[in-house]
Amino acid sequence: MSIDVDTRPSDTDPGPRDDLGAGLLAALDGPFHDERQRTRAELRPEEVLRDPLQSVDDAREWTLRALQALAGHEFGRAGTDPQYGGRGPLAHSVVHFELLCAADMSLAIKSGVQHGLYGGAIWNLGTAWHHERFLADALEVRTPGCFGMTEQGHGSDVSGLETTITYDERTAEYVVHSPTPTATKTYIGNAGAHGRMAVVFGQLIVGPKLHGIHAILVPIRDADGADMPGVTCGDNGHKGGLLGVDNGTLTFDHVRVPRELLLDRYGGVGADGVYRSPIDNANRRFFTMLGTLVRGRVCIGGGAATAARKALTIATTYAVRRRQFVAPGHPEGVVLLDYLAHQRRLLPAIATAYAYGFAQNRLIERLAEVALLEGGDERAQRELEARAAGLKAVQSRFANDAVQACREACGGAGYMTESGLTTIRQDVDVFATFEGDNTVLLQLVAKQLLGDYKQAWVGLDPVKLVQASAKSLGGAVVDRTANLPGVDRLVAAAQGTGADTVEHRGWQVSMFEERERHVVGRLAARLRSAARSGEAAFAATNKAQDHMLYAARAHMDKVVLESFVAGIEACPDPAVKDVLGRLCDLYALSVLEAERAWYLERGRISPQRAKALTQAVNRLCGELRPLADDLVTGLGIPTAWLQSAMLGAKMEA
Amino acid sequence: MSIDVDTRPSDTDPGPRDDLGAGLLAALDGPFHDERQRTRAELRPEEVLRDPLQSVDDAREWTLRALQALAGHEFGRAGTDPQYGGRGPLAHSVVHFELLCAADMSLAIKSGVQHGLYGGAIWNLGTAWHHERFLADALEVRTPGCFGMTEQGHGSDVSGLETTITYDERTAEYVVHSPTPTATKTYIGNAGAHGRMAVVFGQLIVGPKLHGIHAILVPIRDADGADMPGVTCGDNGHKGGLLGVDNGTLTFDHVRVPRELLLDRYGGVGADGVYRSPIDNANRRFFTMLGTLVRGRVCIGGGAATAARKALTIATTYAVRRRQFVAPGHPEGVVLLDYLAHQRRLLPAIATAYAYGFAQNRLIERLAEVALLEGGDERAQRELEARAAGLKAVQSRFANDAVQACREACGGAGYMTESGLTTIRQDVDVFATFEGDNTVLLQLVAKQLLGDYKQAWVGLDPVKLVQASAKSLGGAVVDRTANLPGVDRLVAAAQGTGADTVEHRGWQVSMFEERERHVVGRLAARLRSAARSGEAAFAATNKAQDHMLYAARAHMDKVVLESFVAGIEACPDPAVKDVLGRLCDLYALSVLEAERAWYLERGRISPQRAKALTQAVNRLCGELRPLADDLVTGLGIPTAWLQSAMLGAKMEA
Questions:
Q1: Domain locations along chain B
Q2: Which end of chain A is more exposed for a tag (fewer CB within 10 A), N or C?
Q3: DSSP A625
Q4: What pTM did the predictor assign?
Q5: CATH number, domain A147-282
């Protein structure tokens, strides 16, 4: 075991159970256990832990060097063809990114920019011609590269990008240009200092015709680091975190680029000067291009959740050591985690970390499966994108909240940079924003749900639609996402028995499903009804915006719970299974407790049962508290990576 | 008007109303309007705004110099007798601290340490002998001083401090000593670099007798900055924020200090070698000493809320300028604040900022009133302490959440340090922890509520107690804190009419009152019942810890709403009064919406009314949105202090 958290047993601790932590770890690692263990062992602390006290310049330099060193032993190459330097399956690239987030998030994001975004754009949007010339230099970090999507005026709304890529048939070149100040590319990783090349997204113009957004490779700095002619690189400077990543701006003044540098897998001008694309519709073409980049969102969601696991490991390890206030029966002081309020701060968050871990594993598997379809199944691709968007949003929200709770749970000690917590807090903050603002992403999820809905109910009267029974809606519209027979069996059992305790899994699942079904159904009815009443379309959707966000969250809650159930089913060890079951209870009941107003408003639970939720959460906290050490062992953060002086661990970097 | 927020009017903006913002500002400034306006004009940006990119060393140096410069023109002297350099009333010291938090929180905290804690301890715990010798140097920052309370092993539980202050009658000296590693003073402001003197808290031992915690002045560094013999000063180093404050550690190895340096207003050894104190009970003596330092908590709560106001001003100003996504009727893109989800992120938080502002004004007035009683009214003093603790906890919680929401509401731009938001976020974080951990403070509030309860119901059977009617409980136990006839009238009106809309103020107030009354009543019954069943006292209180925290929050919600009502009553301008009324609705209904599960569980509101809360919050957001500019003008942050490049404002420092 490389995971070994050393703690002093507290008053109520029944003593260590060596195998339980290992069993939890194996279960939570799931299908990627071997690769995760291999990576934990391989990433040496001195290579991947950054000194948080570095200046911005030193942090950037360290991060570049560390990334190059990792590339030297083949890190960052999963998911690409071996003939261009690739190694291992696509899924492993996500696994590696997530674990790097447990070491240093600057290094992880620099890798994400270089391998995932820059390399990924070449791989996914380019052809063999580009792969042969640019991919190895990208993977081996010989050419630091940028992903030039976001513009000053267009963050969430990338279809409105203003940068132009105009074909000049006279010279067979493209002219890349920033026509306005708001067309300036900004917050671009690697643009601030190290980038040599950039994949630049802009509106392709050929003759009089606009072909929508395409991507083109543009050299931005020469070998000495000077701006290329017509290119102006700027530096976004100091940020709220991720100090090792050099974000910057890119502005183009009629920059001429050879025709061949357009990443033209989905369209471009041929040697004959004629534009051709395998996809006729410009909008559909752009979304297809974006779709190939879905891995980024899968990575960011998983990375944020991993950062939360690290903070939970630090704060929980502290909470089983630290004592405060003597009390009758506790002459040496009460151990922090023996306080109910402290348990409620940390243990439901640990349960949620497990829940998201199972959901994320399933998402990574789905990413790999859909990639094998090679874009052949558009519905599967859209579902994957919605799932990735939703899990990115809820995991990054969870991470921000959980890391802050951990910081506060360690009091003054947690505010010292040497605690390790403040750096995690600062770095993970922007995970709520980049690779898609969470509010926008949740609306994407809601639209996907409504799309399903529309497909299933075309032509149906909205009134009838609203009145349709939960049962028929459930089958046709809101699929059970885990698609596991276990879930159906559980729900059926709940209906048969009456499910008289809140710990009945079938009851929990059916409550989650019912909320999703009802909220989505009402949303569809509401939007239809608003459209019929003649209100402007924007005003109508805007009035329901909070409803849309709620629908997306209700859907994601259900997806996550069903993944947890599937994860428990897959666990072979009864003792581990028992603990996972209690963690799943704690996750499910915490969500139901937080959302109980919704159920009460609709008479779906009685006031008595609502109060029982709070009691059950408290009881489960008490039951799981003695297992705290094992629970954090299962979260999979190597002790040597914690970088937390207050735990007495040496900082290894 | 020194407050002047320059924004581009958005699509739905009816245009500027110059007087409304000024009227809101005057109302929210309340009794301190003149002093606040004077201070806003007097604190020049170049004196109080720090460059957030400074290194830790530069930040500390700048902060010390800035504090000395402020002291040079009499800042930081309110509340002390003019004969020792004091200027102006006690209340103004809080007003000044709050406004400094809108400029630079490092500077504010350094002032809080120097003037409030170090100077305040000399003033409150010392005698004329100490005032004459040490106070002017403290106020004028000639002697940077520390407040040595917190120890490594004793953060929240300060009554367990281990440092010893042992009287040596042979030499008429005290010996200050750190007997264990956990006795090390830590996180002490000014200890890291600048401090020359420290007020050190420790257990006073005279002969065989322990007299409990006392405070003594100890020189810690000589004129050249070298540690005094026996004193070891350490540096806590880099923190999650407040980089301009030099927190550090202090360890004492049998340090000898003349007898006169004990701050002996509440007890000490006389020239005859005999210990005397005006307060016999050691515990009571310590809490009396702590009570004199209540101003610190009043400052921290108000300072946190002021930081939130600054972030809300930045994010709202951005949200009325920034556009994203074109939509039908919005060809240039929809202004961010026209989105319902964005309104819900910012406008209820602005309403809450107003609510806390009124409550804080009342607390400052109370602080000044109770100070005039000179400790003569112990009940008034305890109530003040509980109010200060509660408002510190809820305001710092609000600030952390609101500032994070503001950061996220500005997307990638909000993560750049030049936005001004990340520095506020990092600095305000620890406000949840210092001057009392929020969880501990809320329990203090709950205990105070239970204390009241006990007093009112001594001898009553707990079963009868629970069954007692809400009416009689309301009068005797949970006082209407604002004590304004307006509130009684409103509640009476609600009972008379049936209050059929959720905007009926009387209904809102009665709902807040009922929740507090019921939660506190049940808590009292539960603790009595648990005590009777023979469970260990700790286990019983611990089981109810979440209930205690909830009771404290319910109480504070009510206190805040009643202060808001009083603030509206005091406003002479009908147009301003109307807007304040809608802000108060938004605050009250946001709280009721968030807490609606509690009311539903107890049948206190119908499902229909619960849903009406959400609809009303959305409607109020729409009504207040066109007034966004005026609402932030009323928050009182000078435009020149915003330091936010994304607003196009020049950074003045």
A1: 1-21+293-646, 147-282
A2: N
A3: G
A4: 0.93
A5: 2.40.110.10
